[in-house]
Specification:
By secondary structure, the protein is an alpha+beta fold. The protein has one domain: START domain (Alpha-D-Glucose-1,6-Bisphosphate, Chain A, domain 4), CATH 3.30.530. It contains 3 helices and 7 strands, in the order βααββββββα. It has a 7-stranded antiparallel sheet with strand order 1-7-6-5-4-3-2. Strand 3 (55-62) and strand 4 (68-79) form a beta hairpin. Helix 1 (18-26) packs across helix 2 (28-34). The longest helix is centred in the C-terminal third of the chain and has 20 residues, at 119-138. The radius of gyration is 14 Å and the shape is globular. It starts with 7 loop residues before the first strand and ends with a helix.
Length: 140
Amino acid sequence: METTNQAITISSTIQQPAAKVWEIWNAPEHITQWCAASDDWHAPKASNDLRKGGAFSTTMAAKDGSFSFDFGGIYDVVVPHQQIAYTMSDGRKVQITFTEANGQTEVVETFDPEGTNPIEMQRAGWQAILDNFKRYAESK
């Protein structure tokens, strides 16, 4: 299993302006619609206090009820429509940038890997969630 302390980066370009992408990324009523890596998972609950020092939490669950977990953390940086940085509950860091050009927004997420799962599995899982976000955001 490949392990590393090097951060992992994923990205996607959303065919929406940054203000719209920001709203869909951060509003709990939207998070519950897109925050899943596959069709057999969902996010039944989300809360978000979007400010430096604010907390967020999203419950991610298998639709068959076999497993669920809360994904959350505390915001370190919030620059509306541009950047979010947070520390996950296990101490790992995440940075997300939102860069708008020509009516579309590039979302880039960089996160510290955890030590249990292979790097490629982590990258693929986070990318699948971002791809699901893209599909949802572009339908709005």
